[in-house]
Amino acid sequence: MNSVFGTSKQTANAVTEGSNAEASAMPAESSQQVLRLCYDDWKVRQARIVNDASDTALYEIDIRMRKPHLTFRRAGAPDEETALSTVIFHSWTQKIAVQVHDNDLSIKARNWKQRDLEWSSPAFGGQTMAWHHENPWTSTSIVLLDQSQLPVAKFSLARFSVKEAGKIELMGDRSLTQEMLDELVITGVAVVQYTQNQYTAALAGASGGGAA
């Protein structure tokens, strides 16, 4: 599985070294935040999401070929602790299944003509949220839009780095709860990974067809 996690900048001071309940109660001030997503090694089996301002890891991500394809944990959490979130890619139905905070999210396009991936968001009060591709022909940049089409975050990919694949920039002045930040980060990484997998598979198919 090709992975697209990389470095970005963030100021997600909502995550602290306390219990998950304490972290969930703390708002994440979204203004001018940037999140870094980093590979831990060249094998691209693990990644971290880091607070750029403090250089503190917030999330750890396991990346696998088998299900679940992505597993998210809070940084520093014991291995035996229940995962914060799991992600499964369903290639045939073109759907991303995300389990986070005891909620099951189904992320998919509204129809076959549309590349934007949307879902009903418990963290954002039931709004229909969508990761929107700024350029329909590439997967280098996606923007999270709320139900009013207002931007919440932008995920940009870095093309020329082995360990740094992109960044998430939080936009606007809205105050994010920890649940909102979790859902934003997890769905963003999942959508970018899924899109990258589709792109790679399409290239492989085109190459195989040409060779035949």
Describe this structure in words.
- This is DUF6593 domain-containing protein.
- Residues 46-191 form the DUF6593 domain.
- Residues 1-27 are annotated as: Disordered.
- InterPro entries: DUF6593.
- With 212 residues, the chain is of the alpha+beta class.
- The chain has one domain (20-207): Porin.
- The protein is 18% helix and 37% strand.
- It contains two helices and 14 strands; from the N terminus they run αββββββββββββββα.
- It starts with 19 loop residues before the first helix and ends with a helix.
- The relative contact order is 0.21.
- Residues 5-27 have low confidence and may be disordered.
Topology summary:
Layout (H helix, E strand, L loop, with lengths): L19 H5 L3 E2 L4 E6 L6 E6 L4 E8 L6 E5 L10 E6 L4 E6 L2 E6 L8 E5 L5 E7 L7 E5 L5 E7 L6 E7 L4 E2 L1 H34 L1
Antiparallel strand pairs: 1-14, 2-3, 2-13, 3-4, 4-5, 5-6, 6-7, 7-8, 9-10, 10-11, 11-12, 12-13
Defining key terms:
two-stranded antiparallel ribbon; 2 helices; Porin; 212 residues; 37% strand; twelve-stranded antiparallel beta sheet; alpha+beta; 14 strands; 18% helix
